[in-house]
Structures are given as C-alpha cells and as structure tokens.
UniProtKB/TrEMBL annotation:
Name under which the protein is recorded: FRG domain-containing protein
Annotated FRG domain residues: 21-119
InterPro entries for this protein: FRG-dom
Species annotation: Gloeocapsopsis crepidinum LEGE 06123
One Pfam match: FRG
Amino acid sequence: MQEIIVNSVPEFVECLGDVNRGKRALYRGQRRDLHLLPKIARLSTTLPVLEAKQAMLNNFKLLSVPYLKEKPANDWEWLAIMQHHGLATRLLDWSVIPLAALWFTVCKPPAENQHGVIWLFQPNPEDYISTFKHEVPFQINKIVLLQPRLITERIKAQWGWFTAHYFDVDTGKFAALDTEAAYISRLTKLIIPPDKFALFRFQLDRLGVNSAQLFPDLEGLCAHLEWLYTNLADEVHGSEKYDLQKVFMPLPKMN
C-alpha cells in the first residue's frame, strides 16, 4: 500500500493526478489513521453484535417514519439513511469527490496531535453490487461496494458511496478493507500532518468546500457560521507563514 504525505490542497490535487490517472476512484477522509472498518465494528454493544445491529435496524424502521420524506425501498436504503444520520451500521462512507473526503479529515483540529488520512480506493467491476438484486445486506460474504439512491440531501451533496462489510463468523469480527488481501494493492493512503489541518481547512473553504455545502441543512449551516465567527484550537492567527483570514459573509441589513 502506497503512503504519501501532502501539505496543502494544491499538493493534494497534484498528487491525485499522479496516483489516479483518470481511473474510477473513491475517497474517504479520517481525522485518525484507523483501519477501514464500519462504526458497528468499533463499538461495544449491549447484545451480541449481529443481534444489536438487527435490533437497531428494526427500531429505526418503526420510529423514523415521521421524519422521512420517502420510504426506503429495501434494507440497503434503510441502512444508508441510518448511516448518514450517525447510527452504527455495517456500511462505511466514501465519496467520489476527493475534496469532500479531505474536508471530513480536517474540518476539526487534529485528534491528540495525530495525522489525518485520506484513503483512495480503486474498485474493480466485481466489487460493485446492485442494491435491488441483492436485497439482503446480512448475507454478503465479502466486502462489496454500492451506491444508494440519492434519497437524502446529504447523500446527494456528498455523492456518497458505501462499502458494506461482512461479518466473519470464524473470527467474530467484521472485515477491514485495508487488511483484506484482495483490496490492499488498490488502496493509497494520503497523510495530512497535524500542523497542516488549519491550512487545509481555509484553502478548502475558499474553494467552496465547507460544512454548509456538504451538509445542506440547518445543522450544516450552523456549523459553518460558527466556524466563520470563532476560532478552532489550531487556528492561531499571526503564528503561521500562511494567511489564515476567514472570508466572512456580508452582514444582513436589519430593518
């Protein structure tokens, strides 16, 4: 697996051109350099993990209906909505937009001064599945790749894709994409040094990549406005070689 350190957004874009060279690729940003595992695999559950997963799905189906604009067509779509609203599933988020993945890496200060990563994954045709031909998510026996219908504004804004991870009954664990032999050679890890998070954040915002764009709802708008008018812990003005001046929105006229 290739690992590359990048220190700015222009360097990141140039690196993508060298690594990808026009092939189909998916991207995932992480503040921490962790294995490529879904959230359900990283939690301690009160029931055996497969039972907990099924219970969360069943309860979500019962309780979420008043909040949905459209009823999901199958369990894959139920899982996609759960995933995009923070509930643990066997899905792992990816995007076809590399700058979106980069934003998710640097939108907050680094965790315990750790570097962040952007994973680049180059899938093969056999990795894809149709969510309508394979309607039972819990019967997969390999890691598969799927694109949900764009049934929420967040999925649409982020052009979201997912890897769905199988549960290995022999080990009692979910499979990690970066430890499976079939996928390792098709992964590239781009590393963001912790002292460069703020620079990336400001450069991305100047390109229109921020919380308001990637979360097209009131939550995303509020997160962006708060960032505009406050400083995160790593945004110390005057202490860096680059200019970290935020581009403020014009103040609205008050009647």
